[in-house]
C-alpha cells in the first residue's frame, strides 16, 4: 500500500493517527430521515430530523460534507474551556493539562469541515493553535533534559498527535544514550565497587511533566 | 467492489440479510453497545499493537478470519443499496475495515522480511500458515541469490549465510529483532511498580492511563496479557 509507513521505529504517519482518531464518537443532529446503518464497525441510527445521535467522527464528517447533518461541538471545544486550558498551560511549565487524547485531530477535522457549526470559530481556532504551540514548546524543552541516565519517561496527558511527532526523535535519542552509556555504567560500577553504590550511577528517571496529586 | 446487479430473487436477498444479522450478533458487533467490542475495534487494536511493537506478535488468526467473513458478507450484500448515500457510507466503512486488515497483514510481512532467519525457526503460533510459507520461500530465494551472486565466489570457509566463517561458534551474521527499543505505552489496568531491568532496581510506578516511554523488554509480558496498551 503506497501510504504504508515504516515499522522499524514504530512510526505512524499523521494520516494513520487521524484514522485512529476518526473512530471517536461525536454527536450530530441530522436534518434527514434515514434508516439504521448496520456497518462493520457497529450499528447507528435510525436517523430522525432534529434528533441528536452519536456516530463515529468519520461518519459525522461524511454526512456533514453531504449536507445531511450538523455536528454538535464537543464541550471541551468551547471558548471558555479552551481559555481555561490555555491559561493553565501557560502557568505550569512542566505539566500538561488534561485534554482529549485526540484533541488535535478532532479539532482539525471539525474546523475544516464543520466550521459553521462551531460557535466563535475564529476564537476557537486561535485558542487551539496557541494551546498546541505552548504544549509543544514544553515538549521541546523537556526533550533537552533527557540525559544519558534516563531509563523511562513519563508523559502525563500528552495527546496522540504530539506523541507521534516526538516519537521518532525520542526513541532514537533514548536508544543512542542507552547504547553509549551502559558500558560506562558497568565499568564505573566495577571500579568503584568498594565505594557505596551511588544512586546517580543507576540512572535517574526524568519526567517531562511532574505529577501533582 | 463486486456487484451482483439485480439478478437475485427477493427471497435470496432476505436470507442474505438475515444471515448478515445473525453473524453480526454472533460476532458481537450488533446493537451499538460498547460492552462487547466489534471485530473492527479489535482489529484496530491489534493493528496498533503490531505497529508499535518491535517484534512480531502472535498472529490473530481467529480475528482475521472473522473479519474477512464479515467483509465478504458486506461486499456481497451491496446489491440492495438503492440510495447513493447509504451505499457510499457502507463503502467508506468497508474501506476502513479493509485498510486495517491489509495494513496488519503487510506490516507483519515486512517484519518477517526484516528477520527471515529468525522467524523461519519460530513456533507456528507466531506465524499464520501463509506467513510461514512466505518466510520459507523468501528465505530460500534470498539464500539462493546470495549464494549465486556472492558467497560461492568467496573462499570455502566464508560461504555460510549465518556465520562469518566456519570458525565462528554461533550464528553471528544473524540479528534477532531489536527488543531494546523504547515504546510509548499506557497501562489500562492498575499495574503498580514495575522493575525496569536487571541491572539496577529501577522501579517505575505505572499509573492507569498515564503515558510512559519504556524499554520494550520491560513491558513485553504486560503487553502480551493486554494490561498495557502500546500507543
Reconstruct the topology from this structure.
The complex is a heterodimer of chains A (213) and B (231).
Chain A: H1 14-21, E1 25-30, E2 37-39, E3 42-44, E4 53-56, H2 57-65, E5 69-71, H3 79-91, H4 103-113, H5 121-144, E6 153-154, H6 160-191, E7 206-207
Parallel strand pairs in A: 6-7
Antiparallel strand pairs in A: 1-4, 1-5, 2-3
Helix pairs in contact in A: 2-4, 3-5
Chain B: H1 10-27, H2 39-52, H3 61-76, H4 84-114, H5 116-120, H6 129-149, E1 182-187, E2 192-195, E3 203-206, E4 212-215, H7 216-224, E5 228-230
Antiparallel strand pairs in B: 1-4, 1-5, 2-3
Notes on the protein architecture:
The complex is a heterodimer of chains A (213) and B (231). In chain A, 46% of the residues lie in helices and 11% in strands. With 213 residues, chain A is mostly helical. Chain A has a three-stranded antiparallel beta sheet. In chain A, strands 2-3 form a two-stranded antiparallel ribbon. Chain A has a two-stranded parallel sheet with strand order 6-7. Chain A has helices spanning 14-21, 57-65, 79-91, 103-113, 121-144, 160-191, and strands spanning 25-30, 37-39, 42-44, 53-56, 69-71, 153-154, 206-207. Chain B has 231 residues and is mostly helical. Chain B has two domains: 2-114, Methane Monooxygenase Hydroxylase, Chain G, domain 1, CATH 1.20.58; 179-231, Ribosomal Protein L9, domain 1, CATH 3.40.5.60. Chain B contains seven helices and five strands, in the order H-H-H-H-H-H-E-E-E-E-H-E. Chain B has helices at 10-27, 39-52, 61-76, 84-114, 116-120, 129-149, 216-224; strands at 182-187, 192-195, 203-206, 212-215, 228-230. In chain B, strands 4-1-5 form a three-stranded antiparallel beta sheet. Chain B has a two-stranded antiparallel sheet with strand order 2-3. The radius of gyration of chain B is 24 Å and the shape is flat. Chains A and B meet through helix 1, strand 2, strand 3, helix 2 and strand 6 of A and helix 1, helix 2, helix 3, helix 4 and strand 1 of B. Chain A: It comes from Rhynchospora tenuis. Chain A: Residues 76-175 form the GINS subunit domain. Chain A: Component of the GINS complex. Chain A: Keywords: DNA replication, Nucleus. Chain A: Its main location: nucleus. Chain B: Belongs to the GINS4/SLD5 family.
